[in-house]
Amino acid sequence: MLKTSSLKHNFFNRTNSSIPELSFTEEEFNLSLLSLEFSTLYELFLSNKERLQANNGMVLYLNFLCNYLISYYQTDYVAENLNQLLMKKNELDRFIEEQSIQNKRNKREPLEANCKAQPKKSSDEFIHSFVSSSKIRKHLSSFISNRSYWNYSRALSNHVINYLQKIGAVDSLKEINELFGLNYSPEELTALLDKPQIALRLLGFILYGLRFALNLLIMTKHVVLAALNPKLSSKKVLVQEVEKRSYTMSTDLFWGTVNLFNFFGPHWGIDAFLLAKVNLFFLMIDIALFFVLWHIENSQYQFCVNELLLQKHEATSSLERAIIERQIDILNDQKEIQQNYYLFNIAAANVFVLAFAASLIVSGPLTLIGLAAASMLGNAMYNTAEEYKQYRRSIADLKRETLNGTLVADDYHDVLMQNLRVEQAAAQTKFWKNLMFNTGFTALIITAAAVSWPIALSLTLVYIGCKTNNEDRWQPKQSESKPEHLNIYRLFNANSTNKPPRAEEAVSLPLSITE
Which of 146, 182, 325, 512 is deepest in the core (most CB within 10 A)? Predict the structure, then answer.
């Protein structure tokens, strides 16, 4: 069992031994493990805050762990993570102060002298630059996604327009333009949209290159500063940075290369069919990278679960065991959500591969439309992956509360189940709406604009209205349901083993949990 796990056990058992000095260079130091431990305990804290006392072992250990992580991110400075921890630290401080046991807590916990942790002055000078670099990377990612989305939408609309022209359907729609005194042909719009394509290919290479360079620069900065700081291990920092940035940097390198070949290929005399095979190869590499990233994240979850199982074996109090079991519940739910998220992205990548491979061996206007639509679907799946993740989260929440009902089926459980069902339905609706809009609506607008811009304008206004209405209806539900999310991990009984009791044995959690 790790040193931090033994320390956690001491907090629960009120062992009077002094808190050992923990080093960031120790072999057993594992930032991902500590982060998962903290996140699960903090969620339990929020779920049961009204029933906890400030001298509870979980609260004391959570406070210590928060200080420890703050100290780390002050040393290996990451503004976003540090600011999030400081906000959570303030929440813990408010809770402890409201319980009016600050003096007792100071005596029990030597590290509490620094409870009001703030970023070091030596780090302050870097805040502006690295917050800005984080925003730049987010903007670059947004530009890359929008550029890809536009390219797939334009390709689909081009195939549809060509097919409509072949069957003569466009001629019947030209009368609408004549009513408005407009005279332009679909060929003119298609030619207009084709003009920026060369620049967009070059822009793709530039965007991927910039994001790759920024990530490489930040990774190098962290590793070099770690090597110069005796409090850090450059080897551990390097592993953390590789796990954090390897997927994004790999995809940037691959797709930046593809865009470079697509832009300069004709000038270098590279055969178009060879370029198509290169694109197909990197699409398959993208699938492999998803599996690698999934494996890394799954290994981190499993390592944390195994450590919690060791903690549970060593636990001597029923409360400690109940909390550890709830931590495992949280991790299992998160693991299930992430598993579905990766499977969804892998499915999107497979749609790309199949559509692109088929386009190399088949032809025909309707076939090309179908393959372009499949590629558009794959891109739309990528763009709605976060909505799908929220949908899977709502399913996991409902499943967890259903299991809670086997412990205590009270009125609160019934109300919560109703709310979670409503939220799941809302998340499902939002996901499918966004997927449908991302799949075909932009291509539909481009196609409509090729034959009649009044129709395209009407469709655009309808889209904006639906999008605005959808956001207005979703946002209040998000904010109102947030506490209910947390309450699905409430503790029922200090003596609970999380096994379904007989109905006459089921009891609710007392107003305060003490040891």
Answer: 325
Helices (H), 22-78: 31-48, 57-75
CA atoms of 374 and 372, how far apart (whole Å): 5
Reported as a single tens digit per residue, the pLDDT across 63-99 is 999 999 999 999 998 888 999 999 999 999 999 888 7
CB count within 10 Å of CB 295 equals: 11
Number of domains in the chain: 1
Are the CB atoms for 431 and 391 separated by under 8 Å? yes
What one-letter code names the amino acid at 495?
A: N
Q: C-alpha angle with apex 315: 314 to 318, nearest 5 degrees?
A: 155
423 falls within a domain: no
Would you place residue 132 in the very low, low, confident or very high pLDDT band (cuts 50, 70, 90)? low
Q: Give the Cα separation of 377 and 382 in Å (integer).
A: 9
369: Cα within 13 Å, side-chain hemisphere: 14
Q: What is the pLDDT of residue 431?
A: 96
Range of the domain at 28: 3-119
Quote the radius of gyration of the chain (alpha carbons, Å): 28
Report residue 167: phi and psi, to 5°. -90, 0
**CA 362, 366, 369, 370 torsion: positive or negative?**
negative
Q: Is residue 112 part of a domain?
A: yes
Average pLDDT over residues 336-363: 92
Would you call 52 helix, strand, or coil by DSSP? strand
The vertex-84 CA angle with 487 and 118, nearest 5°, equals: 130
Instruction: Kindly state whether residue 44 falls inside one of the protein's structural domains.
Output: yes
Calpha distance 515→499 (Å, rounded): 21
The verdict on residue 105 lying in a domain is yes
How far, in Å, CA of 451 to CA of 175, rounded? Answer: 10
Cβ–Cβ < 8 Å for 37, 498 = no
